[in-house]
């Protein structure tokens, strides 16, 4: 009987240990999450060629391939502990490759494993008010994001396309109150995701005010994005580098009423004159800085549980060769006004169809018409399918 007693106690102890281990495993498993999206689209021009070398598209990122085209597959794995966690965000496909264009440096310019990394960072909740994050994270600037699930319009704005996509560094988020927060960051040069090639760093900051109806975000970025010239590196004639880049960005969006949403994004980006190698010496650049600025308004109306319609109107201008060749530039300056009308039709909880009509009007002859003549405008149509899980 004594041995039986010990056996029963041992069995119950082992059972208790197994139950506790299973509960701990289930608790850890419950903190692991998977989400993502898949998207594809059809695109066609109304007043410009749609095939061959003369194919036309807005000079913005994504949704710029002709005919039936692929977006990206996005897979996001997360772990949310009480104090620590991580985000591993992977992308595949044309949209994903465009989003992580600064990633394949480790492979010597040839696409490597890092080219699928959209975000990869770990975080530590020091307390209820302070969180530290380190790694690669999508930019905090601007209204729009890389994933099509986070945007109402499928095609993207000029400000988003030529602002930062992502940063690698360390950031600290501070909860100042129930509505106010502040973020400060030290990062590699913009979109240099794998490592720091130039040895310079960029500072970032964000002041945010959030309510149940929406939020306002004031963003700053400052730093040298392409390093300093060094005669010991034997630069070739004409080698140049920009001065430090400064960008200020204001983003806001609010549900004015239950069906009506209004948003706004304004940005200003400028870089110093920098340096220039004349074949003998390194000279400091002269003249005004180069850059761009713009503003966009967003209006969205939800008509039912299954459908919403929205418009984006954007003015974007570059100056002093800030983005030469991308907004119809030939003399260093140019501007564009673009209007996009989009619908969001929910076929199911996970699938949204986005029909879209877009008109881009340049200050110069940037596009070609169907007769291959110069044109300042482009009218196009997109139908996208976005599945999220």
Automatic annotation (TrEMBL):
UniProt signal peptide: 1-21
Top-rank lineage group of the source organism: Bacteria
Pfam family, one: BBP2
Keywords: Signal
InterPro entries on file: BBP2 (IPR011486)
Protein name: Porin
Taxon lineage: Bacteria, Pseudomonadati, Bacteroidota, Cytophagia, Cytophagales
